[in-house]
């Protein structure tokens, strides 16, 4: 059982109703429940009879209360709010770059739902773990939904989607023991040099954000903005928390985790209840569409930063979260975000990781939530839906999607069925040519930015990074340690040296600790069962 921790906001008060009037309990058929304490039995000791409809309904529904948790990012918290575009970017109208109304129309505050999350562990795992944090936003725009499914960190471990399932397996608990074993993680990383940059962030204090309100967000991938003429630029999105960024050292995180493993969810919920609404400013980086051979990395590579000094951050809008969900399961658990969910004026880049993700999200959601997951209030757009995609389990669209002529559930048709929309602007038609092949990108440059990030950390952050890496690697076999040290050297000489020395020292201090632990265990007594 979780340790009890003090909450500043009571959730037992009825916030929706000012009246003391009591509501009558019913079953799901609307029948009043007159006894919710006793099943029907022959005499009061039983046996029980099978026509107990209220009991059967209640227990059968309970048996199905949970849906499969997300395959990653299972632990999360969500909130509603709005996004407001500033209408300009770097002093120019944003319409120069994109015709997306969510950016060009400054008259509207676009409603949003945001879900924050950790990645690796299950739905009730501690929120203090060293892990990237998810930052997924659903914009209910006037042109339909746009999802920006990002993380707190600006880069990612890998650049090829084929590696994602292996990466997640390696990070998860061992399939035999169900215990997370960092040796498995570093085994994978030691063979995936592109991960070194992300590892440098994740093992520094940036790997444990203090909560969800004081962390950044990033779209990570390169996307495209498309203007009225169908011209595209490459764009990256970043969210900057107005109240500043706060991260935790491992020691601070351990202290919180000892008494509370919901601290980030609780912090977000309570801040919003108290009217202390979290805010982020959206910044964009924009560069010309193209391969940019002048860079020593590929601009589409999600393991790389676009440095601010090369590509300045321009303010583009504001995100405010001002309302908590009323039902965690319905709104947060069933929320379904996907990288394929774009609106006119926003487009994909050729980033392979992004393209791989785009299949994965809606695929898992059809399994996790159901074929008609897009009909749920949390997922459906505020814009009217007119589609011939009907049927499937739990199709209840009639409450929101009108069909002009429901007899014509096909298109094209000469009668009055649904008609194709007019293209809202000139189509962006990128030119693509080449041989189909299986190859890594040419400008991998796996260590350059990792070294630069190492040098740019504050001294205390660098100290923490070394301490955390040494502690994590000290349980790995020598071959993995050696490979990791060799790669840290390639990032930066000092980086490699410090991990190498740290590991040597930790081996001798571990031997001392073992002796200590053995003698303490000997002194401890056994207890006998008093019952
Ligand atoms: C969740 C796949 C990379 C951010 C998920 C889910 C899947 C998935 C299957 C569960 C979705 C659901 O059940 O609703 C992948 C694959 C990736 C990848 C295949 C790489 C090929 C990334 C990257 C980011 C990211 C690079 C950050 C930019 C997220 C977030 C969620 C998520 C924030 C949670 C969304 C929510 O709150 O519901 N991912 N992912 N993922 N992923 Fe990824």
From TrEMBL:
Cofactor(s) annotated in UniProt: heme
Sequence ranges assigned to domain Catalase core in this UniProt record: 26-419
Catalysed transformations (reactions): 2 H2O2 = O2 + 2 H2O
SMART domains hit by this protein: Catalase (SM01060)
Coiled coil: none
EC number: 1.11.1.6
Sequence segments annotated as region (Disordered): 1-45
Keyword set, alphabetical order: Heme, Hydrogen peroxide, Iron, Metal-binding, Oxidoreductase, Peroxidase
Active site: 73, 151
BP-aspect Gene Ontology terms: hydrogen peroxide catabolic process; response to hydrogen peroxide
Alphabetized Pfam families for the sequence: Catalase (PF00199), Catalase-rel (PF06628)
GO molecular function, one term: heme binding
InterPro entries: Catalase, Catalase_AS, Catalase_clade1/3, Catalase_core, Catalase_immune_responsive, Catalase_sf
Amino acid composition bias (Polar residues), ranges on this chain: 28-45
Domain of life: Bacteria
Residues annotated as binding heme: 361
Record family assignment: Belongs to the catalase family.
Function: Decomposes hydrogen peroxide into water and oxygen; serves to protect cells from the toxic effects of hydrogen peroxide.
Protein name according to UniProt: catalase
Organism: Gracilibacillus oryzae
């Amino acid at each position: 059982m979780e340790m009890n921790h003090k909450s500043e906001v009571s959730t037992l008060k009825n916030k929706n109703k000012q009246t003391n009037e009591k509501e009558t309990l019913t079953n799901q058929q609307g029948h009043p429940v007159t006894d919710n304490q006793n099943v029907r039995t022959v005499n009061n000791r039983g046996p029980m009879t099978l026509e107990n409809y209220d009991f059967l309904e209640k227990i059968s529904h309970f048996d199905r209360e949970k849906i499969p948790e997300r395959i990653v990012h299972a632990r999360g918290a969500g909130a509603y709010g709005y996004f407001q575009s500033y209408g300009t970017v770097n002093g120019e109208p944003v319409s120069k770059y994109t015709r997306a109304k969510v950016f060009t129309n400054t008259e509207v505050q676009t409603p949003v739902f945001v879900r924050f999350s950790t990645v690796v562990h299950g739905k009730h795992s501690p929120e203090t773990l060293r892990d990237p944090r998810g930052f997924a936003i659903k914009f209910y725009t006037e042109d339909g939904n746009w999802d920006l499914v990002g993380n707190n960190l600006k880069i990612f471990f890998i650049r090829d989607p084929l590696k994602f399932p292996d990466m997640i397996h390696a990070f998860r608990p061992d399939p035999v023991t169900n215990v997370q074993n960092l040796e498995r993680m570093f085994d994978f990383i030691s063979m995936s040099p592109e991960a070194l940059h992300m590892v440098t962030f994740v093992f520094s204090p940036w790997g444990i954000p203090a909560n969800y309100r004081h962390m950044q967000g990033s779209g990570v991938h390169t996307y495209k903005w498309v203007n009225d003429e169908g011209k595209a630029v490459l764009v990256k999105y970043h969210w900057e928390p107005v109240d500043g960024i706060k991260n935790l050292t491992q020691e601070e995180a351990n202290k919180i985790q000892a008494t509370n493993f919901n601290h980030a969810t609780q912090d977000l919920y309570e801040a919003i209840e108290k009217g202390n609404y979290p805010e982020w400013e959206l910044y964009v980086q924009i560069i010309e569409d193209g391969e940019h051979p002048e860079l020593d990395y590929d601009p589409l590579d999600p393991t790389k930063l676009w440095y601010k000094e090369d590509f300045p951050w321009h303010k583009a809008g504001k995100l405010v979260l001002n309302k908590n969900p009323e039902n965690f399961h319905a709104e947060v658990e069933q929320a379904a975000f996907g990288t394929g969910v774009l609106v006119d004026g926003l487009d994909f880049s050729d980033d392979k990781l992004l393209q791989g993700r785009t299949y994965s999200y809606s695929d898992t959601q059809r399994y996790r939530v159901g074929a008609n997951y897009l009909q749920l209030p949390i997922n459906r757009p505020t814009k009217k839906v007119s589609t011939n995609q009907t049927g499937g389990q739990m199709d209840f669209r009639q409450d929101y999607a009108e069909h002009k002529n429901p007899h014509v559930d096909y298109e094209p048709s000469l009668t009055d069925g649904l008609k194709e929309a007019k293209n809202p602007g000139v189509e962006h038609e990128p030119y693509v040519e080449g041989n189909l092949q299986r190859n890594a990108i040419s400008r991998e440059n796996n260590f350059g930015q990792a070294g630069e990030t190492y040098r740019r950390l504050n001294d205390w952050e660098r100290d923490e990074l070394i301490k955390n890496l040494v502690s994590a690697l000290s349980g790995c076999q020598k071959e993995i340690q050696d490979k990791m040290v060799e790669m840290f050297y390639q990032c930066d000489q000092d980086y490699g040296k410090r991990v190498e020395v740290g590991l040597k020292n930790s081996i001798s201090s571990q031997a001392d600790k073992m002796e200590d632990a053995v003698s303490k265990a000997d002194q401890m007594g056994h207890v006998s069962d008093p019952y």
